[in-house]
Amino acid sequence: MSEQPYRQNPLLRMSYSLIAPLYDLAIERPMREARKASLASLPASEQRHVLISGAGTGLDLPLLPALHRYTALDFNPQMLAHAVPRGKHLEVDFVLGDSMDLPFADAQFDHVVLHLIVAVVPEPQRCLSEAARVLKPGGTIILFDKFLHPGQRAPLRRLFNGLTRRFATRMDVVFEDVLRAAPELAVESDQPVLASGWFRGIVLRKS
Question: Which residues, other chains included, contact 151 with Cβ-Cβ below 8 Å and sequence gap of 6+?
Answer without folding.
Answer: none
